[in-house]
Give the backbone structure.
Amino acid sequence: MIETVAINAVMRSLADPTRRAVFERIVDTDEITVAELTRGSGVTQGAISQHLKSLKQAGLVIERPEGRNVYYRAEPAGLAPLVDWMSHYGVFWRERFANLRTVLKEIDP
C-alpha cells in the first residue's frame, strides 16, 4: 500500500500553482538560489522561501549551503510516492484501453 503521509505531503506541496512553478524552475536547473528563483517570478523572496520550505518538507528539493547562498536542486526520489500512487491506478487505464481496443475492432474489423 502507498504511504499516505508521503503522498499527501507531495500532493499538498504541488497543489499550489506558484509552488509548482518554483519546483519546475528548480527541475530545469542543476542548482538555483532563492535570489535567482525570485528574479522575474513576480513573487517576493520571502514567499519563495516559504514555497521552498514546503517543497523541502515534502522531500521534493534538497538544499546545499555555500557561504551566504543556499543552492536548491530537485530530489527525484521525492516524487516516488506520486509515481507509486499513479502506477497503482495504471491497471484501471490498461483495462479500459484493452476494452476500447476490443470495441474498435468490433466496429471496424
DSSP finds six helices and three strands in the chain. The chain has a mean pLDDT of 90. Residues 20 and 48 are 11 Å apart (CA to CA). The beta strands are 32-33, 61-66, 69-74.
